[in-house]
Structures are given as C-alpha cells and as structure tokens.
Design goal:
It is a single chain. The protein is α/β, with parallel strands linked by helices and 476 residues long. The chain folds into 3 domains: 225 residues, FAD/NAD(P)-binding domain; 111 residues, FAD/NAD(P)-binding domain; 112 residues, Enolase-like, domain 1, CATH 3.30.390. Helices cover 31% and strands 25% of the residues. It is globular and about 70 Å long. The protein starts with a strand and ends in a 7-residue tail after the last helix. This is Dihydrolipoyl dehydrogenase. Its cofactor is FAD.
C-alpha cells in the first residue's frame, strides 16, 4: 500500500530540503527522501553542502584561521602567548559538531513544516494508473510512495581522475580532505578551484607544505583578471605553491607516498611526491540508482537531468534542481531553484535570476563576485566604466589588520547600470550582497554612491568603488 503525496522530493540537500519546506508552506502534502546517514545509521540531511562541503569546510577554515592568527599575528595586537599546540582531533570534532547542528536543524524544520522525512535511497518505480509517479524508498524498510509532482534534487559527486579512484586515505575527495587524521608534511592538490584553494589553505595554515597543480593555463580563470592576479599574489605570499598549465603523468602510490609526475607549462618534466593527494577537478551529477529510465526521464550526454529555464524536465510534473541540472554547482543557486519550483507547483510565479547569483571563495583573502568580468564585457563589445577602491585605504580594514585586496565595480558607460562587481579582501562574502541587490534592481553605480554607509565599516569600500566609477573617490 503506497502513501500518496502532492510532492515528493528526492534528496535533502540545499535544493531539496528547501523545496520541500516551501511546498509544505504553500499547503502541499510533502515528503522528502534522503539516504545520507552516519556510521550509526542516524539521518544526516543537508546533502554534500552540509555534510562534506560548504559547512564543514567553513568550520575548518575558521579554526585554521584562529590557529594562524595565534601563531603569527596576535603579537601585533599586544597579545603574548606561550607555545601554541594544535589538537587536530578537537578541531575535527568541532567541525563534526557544527555539521550535526545543521543536520538536526533541518530535521527540526521538517517537523515544524509538516514535511514527512524518509531516510533511505529514493528512486522512480514507474507510473501509477492515474498518471502519478511511484517512488520507492529503500532504507531500514522498503516503502512505496506515489506523488503528483516529483522534484529530483540528488546533487553531485566528486570527479575522480581516470584510473585513480578515491580511497579517502591517500587519494582524497572533498570528503577525505575534511578529515585527514594528522597534518601531512607535504600535501598535493590537483585543481586550483574553490575546493582546492580552500582545502589547501586549511592544511597550509595547520602546518603542511601545500603544492597545487592546475591544468588551466591561467590561475582562477573564472574570476576577473585583476582579482585573480591579486589572489595569486596573496597566496604566493602565504606560501601556497600554485603551478598552472601543467599536464599530469601517471600517478602512482607507495605505502607512504603518492608520486605525481607532471610537465610544466614551459615543458619541464617534474615529479611531486606527497603524503596525501586531494583531487578537486570538478563534480559530476549524481543520478546513480535513480532509475530514471523506468519513467523515461531524459538525461543529457554528461548525465545531467535535462530541464528548461523553469526546471521542468521532459515529463509532466517532474522537476529537477541544483547540482543535478545545468548551471553553477552552488548551494544558494539550488535553494533559489527549489523555492521557485515549489511556487510554480502551487500556481505561483517562481523566479530565479541566473545573472545575479554570487560566487564566493572563502580563502583569506575572501573572493566574491557577481555579474560579468571586465574581460567578458569587453569581449561582448560593451562600453564600460570601472571603479576600484583598495582596502588599504579603508579605516575599518586597517583596524582589523587586514588590508589586502580591493573592490571593483563595472558599470555601463552610458546608463551607469552595474554590470559586474568583484571583491577580494576581508568579508568579501558578506559585502557582495549589497551589489547583488543593486544588480537585481538594475541599479546604477550612482545609487550605491548616494547611499549612506556606516563609518567605519568595510562596506565603505563598496561605496568608494562606486564613487570611483565616476572618478570622484573621497578617501583615495
């Protein structure tokens, strides 16, 4: 006997659990299915983001930042400390506690919003006679659900190098990178993207020598060139060794080390020997076991669920959101899609503006941007004007002792509409929100320049960059 729901969501990551909650708020009878459990079989909703991604990595970044501050920067503030000792097990345990708090919080939200939560693997099991969809849940018990609407939110998995599977001991994905039992003497990272830079930063601060190898010919090509250049300078100064334009050879392992032969951009043959190797070369959509073929759900050649601009699949009342569909693999993008789909199911007009989804790298300095880069706009033939303001000239940044970086705002030369904003520096992840809001309302640089910003704050650098667009900064 199956249980009938208006909406069944497969996956309880940021896209899935948010979609389930919003659909329930709109009066739908909702179930959410997720297979993630701990070693004792306890549910761990939240997906990759909560369990082995956004949340635990930020916890480790915070802890490692404190460790580095205590070692190298407390003295600048007149704080003298004795010998500094790292208790890695405590640091990792704190990260695990933060993750559990988020897992528990999601389960509380399910109860609060009357979402029925099933712990197990969800998959399609054909169609019912009335046209609704059968969903099988395989957990401690096997259960059968039927749903008028199904939202696929199964997320993504780390991409492995060909012939080099993850063992989470020597060859690490983002999961293993979060729980290395002892600080490696030498750590290799393949890929200088978000995960590579963040995890490389964590373990460098904790004492590892970190070497990052990147196949792309330029560093951080997704970011504005000026931002990427400033970031590389900062990371070089910190001791992160980053080499771009490399070609990997055949990676081999011994009992104690991983050997990574590679060819440099200049054609030199080199070999890197490390204690552990993090592989962060992107992620692939996770549809394994979904049984999409049982209902004829269309996947593209790369394994993504095919959807239109409204997250509709090729089947009526079947939707897909988040990492399993096109677009950036970002938790906040998945959340926005989840809300929009729930609202469309309820007959409302869900909205996602893919042009104003911010990107953030939580290194030190933080890096954040929204909209287009200067290079993209010039390639499009847009006539633009640019304003920059350095944190070195910001009073709050000086007081914090963190003056690396700058704010860059790009506006249309004729209309002054903000087309892109790029920040590298302290709390860039928070500062970018003002610029997302301005762009969402198609605001101008002049609008930011005319808004009163509290003093002394880091946000004044945003105002000054907006003033710089019109060549009238006040503090530079």
């Amino acid at each position: 006997m199956s249980t009938q729901f208006d909406v069944v969501v497969i996956g309880a990551g940021p896209g899935g659990y948010i979609a389930a909650i919003r659909a329930a708020q709109l009066g739908k009878k909702v179930a959410c299915i997720d297979a993630w459990v701990d070693a004792k079989g306890n549910a761990k909703p939240g997906g990759t983001c909560t369990n082995v991604g956004c949340i635990p990595s930020k916890a480790l970044l915070q802890s490692s930042e404190h460790y580095e501050q205590a070692q190298h920067h407390f003295a600048d503030h007149g704080i003298e400390v004795g010998s500094i000792k790292l208790k890695l097990d405590t640091l990792i345990a704190r990260k695990d506690t933060v993750v559990k708090q988020n897992n528990d919080g999601i389960q509380y939200l399910f109860k609060k919003n009357k979402v029925t939560f099933y712990v197990g693997k969800g998959s399609f099991d054909g169609k019912a006679a009335d046209g609704s969809y059968k969903i099988k849940v395989e957990g401690k018990n096997t259960e059968e659900l039927t749903a008028t609407h199904v939202i696929v939110a199964t997320g993504s998995a780390p991409r492995a190098l060909p012939g080099l599977p993850f063992d989470e001991d020597k060859i690490l994905s983002n999961d293993g990178a979060l729980r290395i039992p002892s600080v490696p003497k030498k750590l290799g990272v393949i890929g200088a993207g978000v995960i590579g830079l963040e995890m490389g930063s964590v373990w460098r601060r904790l004492g590892a020598e970190v070497v990052i190898l990147e196949a792309a010919p330029t560093f951080l090509a997704v970011a504005d060139e000026a931002i990427a250049k400033e970031a590389k300078k900062a990371f070089d100064k910190q001791g992160l060794q980053i080499e771009v334009g490399v070609k990997l050879g055949e990676i081999t392992q011994t009992a104690k080390q991983v050997k990574v032969p590679y060819t440099t951009a200049k054609g030199e043959e080199k070999s890197l020997e490390v204690d552990r190797l993090i592989v962060s070369i992107g992620r692939v959509p996770y549809t394994e076991g979904l049984n999409a073929e049982s209902i004829g759900l269309k996947l593209n050649e790369r394994g993504f669920v095919e959807v239109d601009g409204d997250c509709k699949t090729n089947l009526p009342n079947v939707w897909a959101v988040g990492d399993v569909v096109r677009g950036p693999m970002l938790a906040h993008k998945a959340e926005e899609e989840g809300v929009a789909v729930a609202e469309r199911i309820a007959g409302k007009h869900g909205h996602v503006n893919f042009d104003t989804i911010p990107s953030v790298i939580y290194t030190s300095p933080e890096i954040a941007w929204v909209g287009k880069t200067e290079q993209q706009l010039k390639a499009e033939g847009r006539t633009i004007k640019v304003g920059n303001f350095p944190f070195m000239a910001n009073g709050r940044a000086r007081a914090l002792g963190d003056t690396t970086g700058f704010v860059k705002i790009i506006a249309d030369a004729q209309t002054d509409e903000v087309l892109g904003a790029h920040i590298i520096g302290p709390m860039a992840s928070e500062l970018i929100s003002e610029l997302v809001t301005i762009m969402e309302f198609k605001g101008a640089a002049e609008d930011i320049a005319r808004i009163c910003h509290a003093h002394p704050t880091l946000s004044e650098a945003v105002k000054e960059a907006a003033l710089a667009v019109d060549k009238r900064t006040l503090n530079l």
